[in-house]
Amino acid sequence: MGWLFLIIPAVAVFWVVGMYNGLVRGRNQVDNAWSQIDVQLKRRHELIPNLVETVKGYMEHEKDVLESVVKARQMAISAGGMEDTMQAENMLSGALKSLFAVSEAYPDLKANTNMQTLQEELSSTENKIAFARQHHNDSVTSYNNKLETFPSNLIANSFNFRPKFLFEVDSLAEREPVKVSFEDPEDIKLTH
Fold first, then answer.
1. Which end of the chain is more exposed for a tag (fewer CB within 10 A), N or C?
2. How many domains does the chain have?
């Protein structure tokens, strides 16, 4: 009977250690998932100057579109913290959609081999970013569930584990595809 008083505390200690380690693994998985997004975002940031240079000569009348891409890229590069980065990257995605939509009005640009290669690379990178965001959100959901469900929430609160944020689209306008209107060749309109 005396050994029972030793086993119960030992089981409790192992239980606490197991829960704590599971929370640490979850937090590290979220951090790793964010790092994967960051790698793909940096790749996108590196491709954009080449894209802008290729497009510049063809799109003389679309300086606003090019400037919005350059500005959004700079904001994304200088963003600090996860939430600011998410917001800046959503703006950059919208600016790139607008650029590609406008580029459809320039047949010579569409036929340019360099432009086609850059579009393919950016498209591939965008797909990787989407997958990385999905993996991040799955990891965040799993981790946050551990923080909120019993009994792991007791350990999470005791050791000050904090919830993580999902990577989300901020506005309804960003969820809509860009529409291009060719009412007059000189007047190309972009709307969400």
1. N
2. 1
Token duo for residue 154: 């007791």
Does residue 99 carry a pLDDT above 90? no
Is there a contact between 113 and 120 (Cβ–Cβ < 8 Å)? no
Amino acid letter at 54?
T
The model's pTM: 0.71
- Spatial distance between the Cα atoms of 192 and 188, rounded to a whole number of angstroms: 14
Confidence at residue 155, expressed as pLDDT on a 0 to 100 scale: 93
- CB neighbour class for 75 (10 Å; exposed up to 12, middle 13-18, buried from 19): middle
In angstroms, the CA 87 to CA 147 distance is: 25
Half-sphere exposure of 67 (CA within 13 A, CB side): 5
Q: What CATH number did the domain enclosing 141 receive?
A: 1.20.1440.20
Residue-wise pLDDT for 8-41, tens only, equals: 888 999 999 999 999 999 999 999 999 999 899 8
